[in-house]
Amino acid sequence: MVKILKFILVLVITSSIFISCGDLNRTLDENIDKLMKKTESMDSLLNKEVDKALRLDSLINTGSEKAKKLDSLIDKSASRMDSLVNKKINPNK
Q1: If pLDDT is split at 50, 70 and 90, which confidence band does 93 have?
Q2: pLDDT tens-digit profile of 57-68?
Q3: Cβ(86)–Cβ(93) under 8 Å?
Q4: Which residues of 6-18 are buried (b: 16+ CB within 10 A; e: fewer)?
């Protein structure tokens, strides 16, 4: 009789362990799924922000190129103006 009770007790404990492991496994899977969704959301947000930074960098580069061209035109115009003024002031040269 004691052997049967021990066998039943071992059987009950073993089945309890398997059931609790199954519950833990299900909970773990749910938490992993939540974590994956959050990771994908963060990745999407990060990609959007990186795209914004790249567009801003492109705009800055374009503005810098335009400023350099404008500076070059101003320098050429200033040189021409200086040349004309020098001719009017010193016509002998």
Answers
A1: low
A2: 999 999 999 999
A3: yes
A4: eeeeeeeeeeeee
